[in-house]
Specification:
This protein is of the alpha+beta class. It is built from 7 helices and 4 strands, in the order E-H-H-E-H-H-E-H-H-E-H. The protein has a single domain, classed as Nucleoside diphosphate kinase-like domain (Alpha-Beta Plaits).
């Protein structure tokens, strides 16, 4: 089994889509081993997206991620990172495959409903950023 980190972003949470997204996560065979609702500060969002701090979209990204509540999760499944990335779809909802979360629930590249880790190392950092070991069941 492998774990990955996932976020239902503020746009999808505000639109009332969290339940539908969670249902799709369970339907895809993931176990949710950690889940909490949070509202990031801009500083917390900046720490989370630190690898993008020198990119021109950083301020917009951290502003968006701190604009409202979101759900952060730890998902578990065989090849969880790859499976979650396939379920999410391409970063740009317009380029995402039919039936993916970003295609179905995202509106544009900056408001694409969900986030997921892209590698084992990224997943480890992201999980540890939001969850203490005792919070994972």
């Amino acid at each position: 089994m492998e774990q990955t980190f996932a976020v239902i972003k503020p746009d999808a949470f505000a639109a009332g889509l969290a339940g539908q997204i969670l249902a799709r996560i369970y339907e895809a065979g993931f176990s949710v081993v950690g889940l909490k609702k949070i509202w990031l500060s801009e500083a917390q969002a900046g720490g989370f997206y630190h690898e993008h701090q020198d990119k021109p979209f950083f301020a917009d990204l951290t502003g968006f991620m701190s604009s409202g509540p979101c759900l952060v999760m730890v998902l578990e499944a065989p090849k969880a990172i790859l499976q979650w990335r396939e379920l999410m779809g391409a970063t740009d909802p317009a380029a995402a495959a039919a039936g993916t979360l970003r295609r179905d629930f995202g509106t544009f590249i900056g408001r694409n409903a969900v986030h997921g880790s892209d590698a084992v190392e990224t997943a480890a950092f992201e999980i540890n950023y939001f969850f203490a070991g005792l919070e994972l069941l």
